[in-house]
Amino acid sequence: MTNVRTRFAPSPTGFMHVGNLRTGLFAYLTAKNANGAFILRLEDTDKNREVEGSADHIKECLKLLGITWDEGLDVGGPYAPYQQSERLDIYKAWAQKLIDAGRAYADPYTAEEVQAFREQAQKEKRAFLYRNHRPENPPAWDGTQPLRFKSDPKSYDWHDEVMGDLHSGPEVIDDFILIKSDGYPTYNFAHIVDDAEMQVSHVIRGQEFLSSQPNYMNLYEVLGLTPPIFATMPHILNEQGNKKLGKRDGAKDVLDYVREGYLPETLLSFIATLGWNDGTEQEVFTMNELIEKFSLQRVQRSGARFDEKRLLWMNGQFIRGLTPEDLERRVADFWPDTAAGADTDYKRRVLTLAQDRLKTLADLPILTSYFFEEPEPDVSLITDNKQLAKLESTMRVELLTAARDTLTELTDWSTASIQQALNDLLETTGQKPGILFSLIRIATTWAPFSPQLNDTLELLGKERSLDRLTRAIDYAG
């Protein structure tokens, strides 16, 4: 197919989680890989579930990851409008075609009557099918009743770019609602009309729609439409891999990740590799690399496990790849409050030290606060440390005293000289680096983790480092 046109059509019913965003990203990559067009459409026909501000939130999430659309919301295009609530006349016109062909009818039953049919089917231990209760002489449709599709149950075979060759029998096809009593179309009807009118070539959506595909095939056939290419995305699973990812498992607002210090580039690469790979060992991708390498054929059929540790690792990889200038810009809102009045050059030096240890931008305060204020001693950092806890208190005092005395003698307070002094201490004390250096690091920072010790001491300065060692001697005992 030479003219690839894909769409992302979310509903404004809440925040965007990784499952939503992956569907949109894969649709975008499919289009861009083929130099095609990507459409952003809003499926806002379920007014009872609509959340104010959700549409803007969707657009913000897409832009955050660098996903731009060629047609659709805000930018317009040849098939406007791109918001379903503004296309009601279009759906009514297509519905009228079905009515005129005898393939749609007004639903005369109340919700209570339909529920009674459903409960009766449950009692008889059979699947509920509305078509078993299809009225013989339905009233003319006046828009106040639901409009139902008059189905033609049959078997279907179709190909899915991800799931392969699929088959369904006639028993799963039913008379579904096309237009609700409030005048709004259902997703089952509207998306088929919109895709046809907008000449969408590929329909990429989640696995939850797969069970409805036979009904869609039936409607495509009745409308005389050639079905598009289908690609069904498998579920994103929780960390244990035993169920679909839910809010309790981490399916949170995509923007929350950014607020927590994750980079948009990380989210892009992580989401892209949830169930897709390029066939190599590469794990971290830029947008340009994804566009070049992406194909639906390499999306796995099985569910993709949401691995929080992998996300954190990947974020650290991207942070370490940032230029100093870019990192400085990204962390503007993450500095500890005590850094507000600090010298700009000094903050840059602190940031350079911290960069290799940052896993998220939100780690910055705990990694750097002791450069801007006197830290509050936390003896649990010593007593909870498996190695340091084994040391007698007198030994801890001796080691810190030796460190202070050795460092006091330094006339050249540089990273190289400090490291040499630390190495000499290892020989004179007979201790391992994991014990001696950890003790000095905690005594001078009172932080759970910090940059390399000699670099940290150099930036803290000689006087401040020695003062902290002196004060720490009291706590170590």
Task: State which percent range the strand residues make up.
Answer: 5-15%
- The tally of domains stands at 4
**Class derived from helix and strand content:** mainly alpha
The strand count comes to 12
Notable traits:
477 residues, mainly alpha, Rossmann fold, 4 domains, three-stranded antiparallel sheet, 12 strands
In a nutshell, what does this entry contain?
The protein is mainly alpha-helical and 477 residues long. It has 19 helices and twelve strands.
Could you explain how this protein is built, in words?
The protein is mainly alpha-helical. The chain folds into 4 domains: 1-73 and 234-321, 3-Layer(aba) Sandwich (Rossmann fold), CATH 3.40.50; 87-233, HUPs (Rossmann fold, 3-Layer(aba) Sandwich); 326-372; 380-476, Arc Repressor Mutant, subunit A (Orthogonal Bundle). Helices cover 43% and strands 9% of the residues. The protein is built from 19 helices and 12 strands. The strands form 5 sheets. A 3-stranded parallel sheet has the order 1-2-3, with helices on one face. A 3-stranded antiparallel sheet has the order 4-5-8. A two-stranded antiparallel sheet has the order 6-7. Helix 1 crosses helix 9. The termini are far apart. 33% of the residues are buried.
Present the secondary structure layout:
Blueprint: E1 5-8, H1 18-33, E2 37-40, H2 54-64, E3 71-72, H3 88-100, E4 104-106, H4 111-123, E5 147-149, E6 156-160, E7 164-168, E8 177-179, H5 187-197, E9 202-206, H6 213-223, E10 229-233, E11 236-237, H7 254-259, H8 264-272, H9 287-293, E12 304-305, H10 308-320, H11 324-330, H12 344-354, H13 364-368, H14 380-383, H15 393-408, H16 415-429, H17 433-445, H18 453-460, H19 462-476
Parallel strand pairs: 1-2, 2-3, 9-10, 11-12
Antiparallel strand pairs: 4-5, 5-8, 6-7
Helix pairs in contact: 1-9, 8-10, 15-16, 15-17, 15-19, 16-18, 17-19
